[in-house]
Amino acid sequence: MSSAKPEREYFLDSIRAYLMLLGVPFHVSLIYSTQRWAVNSHDASMWLTVLNDFIHAFRMQVFFVISGYFSYMLYLRYQPQRWLKVRMERVGIPLLTAIPLITLPQFFMLKNLTDKVGNWDSFSLYDKYNTLAWELISHLWFLLVLVILTALGMLTFRWLRTQKRKIDYQQVGWGKLTLAFLAYALVWCLFRRVLFYAVPNVFADGLFSVAVMQTLTFLPFFMLGALAWKHQALKALFVRFNPVMCFGAIAVFIAYSLNQRYSSGDGWLYEIDEVISTLMGLCMLNVCFSFGHKLLNSHSPRIMYLVNASLFIYLVHHPLTILYGIYVTPHISSNTLGFFVGLLMVFGIAFTLYEIHLRIPLLRFLFSGKPQRNEVKTPSATR
């Protein structure tokens, strides 16, 4: 184990930023996909459905590996209580800021301009709470999961730092990792199936679905990132291109698409999805890390600008995408043209808002969780 600070790993910052920014084409393509969303085009596009499925199949698994990597790096740099305070500020403050400034107005927009919320006045008190929970968490769910994983990190990272098991990570390959992750995924499936038979209504609860089920889904990827910091042999495995993992990603994605088309929630859709997404995450981890290490591992002012902007862009893009779907999509007959116009409009407005917020110190603090100096300075990406 080495806790010495290495050279800055630009490729990890870059991959994380691009994964965050992929949220924009993901949600814009969702308008034109076969998936039912807050707003949809009149007819679905098959290629945009495939694109949407592909982004969704791997993006957050790789993101949480990188988050775990940097989180454990900072854990070794600070005292545990100081680390917890810093991490909670960096993740929690943007989360608490985005709820009243972004997702609450977005809720009223959905309630008044779409049929997504339904007949609000007829809802029971619990239904109103639960609908609000789903809509206020919305696309911020990963920040809530990061907050929970950070709190758990006080235990898991302490265990990781002190554990003395003699494992030769030089001998750990993709086969052993895959078996370990498959075993975890099967335990997750068993847990979900027990809940499905015992208390099926619990899955309709927004807070439970995110705080428990999503956290359990991404916990092993988060810890894998931490392990990769502690045992650099793992990181070396990740950045070394493996053609089997590349072709595996193609095969697993085909299985993912078939499951989305032909399984149902009353059947085994979610359990099969968990297993497939676990495999897809591992395969794309190698693809993203190997290509990222080769192509993005150098300093570039333009890339660093995207790194710094990515969290803000992600936070504000969601209501912008919904507004685009409501007011512009019906007037563009071509789904392909509508998709690219949507990308230009959403990215354009989001980056404009980003530049405006940089000039307001209070907003810079609220959307980064970092104390601000007097000069205008682009905030670093959340770690």
Question: Which key phrases capture this entry?
Answer:
383 residues; mainly alpha; disordered N terminus; disordered C terminus
Overview of the molecule:
With 383 residues, the chain is mostly helical. The protein has one domain. Helix content is 74%, strand content 0%. Helix 2 runs parallel beside helix 12. The protein is globular. The protein starts with 9 loop residues before the first helix and ends in a 17-residue tail after the last helix. The N terminus and C terminus are likely disordered.
* Beta content: under 5%
Shape: globular
Termini separation (Å)?
21 Å
Structural class: mainly alpha
Rounded to an integer in angstroms, the radius of gyration calculated over CA atoms is: 21 Å
Number of strands: 0
What string, H for helix and E for strand, traces the elements in order? HHHHHHHHHHHHHH
Largest sheet: none
Estimate percent helicity: over 70%
**Mean pLDDT over all positions:** 92
**Number of individual domains:** 1
Q: Enumerate how many helices there are, as a single number.
A: 14
Low-confidence stretches: 1-5, 375-383
Describe the structure in brief.
The chain is mainly α and 383 residues long.
Secondary structure layout plus pairing:
Layout: H1 10-21, H2 23-31, H3 46-77, H4 80-113, H5 125-137, H6 141-162, H7 174-198, H8 206-230, H9 232-239, H10 243-262, H11 269-295, H12 301-327, H13 335-358, H14 361-366
Helix pairs in contact: 1-3, 1-11, 1-12, 2-3, 2-12, 2-13, 3-4, 3-6, 3-8, 3-11, 4-5, 4-6, 4-12, 6-8, 7-8, 7-11, 8-9, 10-11, 12-13
